[in-house]
Amino acid sequence: MIPELKILFHQGKQYIPDVTTVEVPGIFSGRPVISTLPVDITALCAVCPTHAINADPAVSIDLGKCLFCGECADRFPEKIRFTKDYKLGSNSREKLIVHEGIDQPVGFDPAKIRGEITRLYAGSLKLRQVSAGGDNSCEWELGAAGNVNFDMGRFGIEFVASPRHADGIVITGPISQNMAEPLQICYDATPSPKIIILAGVDAISGGIFDNSPALDRTFLSKYPIDLYIPGNPIHPLSFINGVLGLLRAGKKK
Amino acid sequence: MALDAIPVLGYTDFLEHNTALMAHKDWHCINYFGQPVNGLIRLICCMANDNARTIHVNVALVNQSDQLPSFTRRHFSFHIFEREIHESLGIHYTDHPWLKPVRYPWYRADLNQKIENYPFYHIESEELHEVGVGPIHAGVIEPGHFRFICNGEQILHLEIHLGFQHRGIEKLMIEKKDLLSRTILAESIAGDTVVGHTTAFVNLWESLSGFTPSPDLVQARTLALEWERIAIHSGDLSAIATDIAYQLGSSVFGRLRTPIINAFQTWGGNRLAKGLIRPFRSRFPFDDTLAENFSNVLNAYWPDYTEMFDRMIDLPSVLSRLEKTGVVTREQNLQIGAVGMAARSANLERDVRKSHPYLGYHNINHTPVLMPQGDVYARTQIRDSEIRQSIGYARTLMQEMPKPSPQNTTINPPAPNTLIVSLVEGWRGEICHAAIIGDDGDLALYKIKDPSMHNWTALALAVRNNEISDFPICNKSYNLSYCGFDL
User: Fold this and answer.
1) Given this model, what pLDDT does residue B144 score?
2) Looking at chain A, which residue has its C-alpha nearest residue B263?
């Protein structure tokens, strides 16, 4: 028992006291900022492997397609800069598009948040995770969101073993054909009302796998999506803040 | 090597030659695949000799309609490659003992094969029962289906049915024409082995282009490989502690992984090192500030790590769950062609860092960590020893980091009609990427082998005659890749 106590003592406090304001270490590639500087637009758009950069009419980056590979910022450092802002989640697909000359948080559209989400889940949200062709990076980071550092359990947010116990599902991966049916079965097994969260670029847009014949993304066209969280992979703080944003933004209605 | 320089054998000689090599433990098959050419199928077998540090390649041309005797009948380690050839190219084997689907790719030869109708092995008996798990598991992990045949609590047989994660990466590698997309695809083969798979791709592509990376780039990539090993092994120890309900170990190892992967973020902006490894250049040179930062991370990690591991491995309640659980013997590992940690846990030396050195491993006199028992305990101990070894390597690599030098600007287009094979020892084991450049000077075939291709069979063997309640701990002791297998 004594060695265990010593270990506990040596570990000290490992949790992040405030996950909504903490600064991440190093040079995290988060929300990009686009300057209004004129550049070779055709060359800029051609850099992006997933066509996340659009220039019609002004330059914008779709975070739902962005791989955060940083290639555009490497080539056009005066035009695009990735900030350390990890609050990338939104309930609105349109809000994931970052526009030229506008440096403001991604944010939520409170009007679109279903009333039952705020009413039922603000204090406790149990989620079932489904990896549908995910490469195990987003899955890792979702696991990390529950560890002693990030500790999302403190907000009542938890992953559960069965869809029967869940209030919603979190999808990672571009949704492979071979996972389309298990995903549907899992969703059907989750009691209503239920939410759908898309975690990571692969889930939101297919990412680098977009248009692969191995995918079947028809599931996504059948149901409303409650939360999009960009990232490749998503950072645990992006996930926690995204879910908290969804649960809290509705209160301000 | 040039395609026309590869010896072409008749199928009988091809079979005799390659299977005969397997009689000696120095030899193993690193990749075996097929390519359709002019109505025929070119079978390409890549055999490595770990002692002579060589790779031998030979080729046979066959018709798709041929009924062929299998390699697998002679040596079981070929089973997964022949299954893949059968599934994707439709070659028929007359005597393959286990010709089951591999991953149900969208381009499979027989589209009537459906993933929902996987042909599971059955035993008719009133005393036995079956347990099906997955494809969606209870934890936050990837999908795969496990079908157990049990006698009471005891597992007689486990069949592992994968393919759910198939994204078509090998075909996308050819279809995407720009190098950045291909590099990002390599990063996405297995998100827990970003450095391993990206390095395999980058080494391959740079070699095709006649490019020699500068010493600082070589050193930084080697460091990244060892750093990834420290990170994932720490996380695996947490997972092992979780599955034996040792809460303190689970929490402490879990949180010890955090500063290691955060260091990757400090280096390249991503905790799993996506964006760090790029062909022909370094996006983020490893400078003195980073070296100091990484060194501080290790200084803080070391006392907490050693205190926790030394305590955990001293507890009888922990040892009783690890020792003699999930044993796979050396002979079994040889038979199935196991690689990496799985093989080394049963005294079978398979380590590309020593047998076929690349990057900075030419300068590291690497001695692979070997354990004799082949059980969960050995696979736990190997992680500990490798963490300690990799920390040592990382410290040396950081201290002796060469000053940044300009990159060689010679980048030639790949020579047409070339075959190239790239080997990297990822934290799981041997990663093999193979590519064929066609007449037009562009990729005509890209084949990826994650170590999991060999090692899933080891897990199926490990659980035999164990209690079904020990399945999770056996599974975690391997921690194999689903997406790396399904591609």
Assistant:
1) 93
2) A26
* pLDDT for A253 beyond 70: no
What is the DSSP pairing of strand B430-437 with strand B418-425?
antiparallel
Task: Assign A164 to helix, strand or coil.
Answer: helix
Architecture of the domain spanning B201-449: Orthogonal Bundle (1.10)
Nearest chain B residue to A136 by CA distance is B191
Answer left, alpha or beta for residue A181, where phi above 0 means left and psi between -120 and 50 means alpha. alpha
Confidence band, pLDDT 50/70/90 cuts, at residue B334: very high
- Quickly state the pLDDT bin for B95 (edges 50, 70, 90): very high
CATH topology of domain B1-113: Beta Polymerase; domain 2 (3.30.460)
A141-170 residues touching B, CB cutoff 8 A:
141-144, 147-149, 159, 161-162
Q: Tell me, what CATH number does A111's domain have?
A: 3.40.50.12280
When divided into structural domains, chain A yields a total of 1
pLDDT score for A252: 58
pLDDT in the model for residue A220: 94
> Does B108 have pLDDT greater than 80?
yes
**Mean pLDDT value across chain B:** 93
Strand bridging mode B443-449 / B430-437: antiparallel
Of B248, B255, B267, which is closest to A4 when you measure between CB atoms? B248
Query: Distance, in angstroms, between B115 CA and closest chain A CA?
Result: 7
Tens digits of residue pLDDT in B112-153 = 999 989 999 999 889 999 999 989 988 888 999 999 999 999
Q: Hey, what are A221's tokens? A: 């066209």
pLDDT at residue B276, as a whole number: 93
B106/A28 touch (CB, cutoff 8 Å), yes or no: no
This prediction's pTM = 0.93
* B366-388 pLDDT per residue, tens: 999 999 999 999 999 999 999 99
For the segment A36-60, what is each residue's pLDDT rounded down to a tens digit? 888 898 999 999 999 999 888 889 9
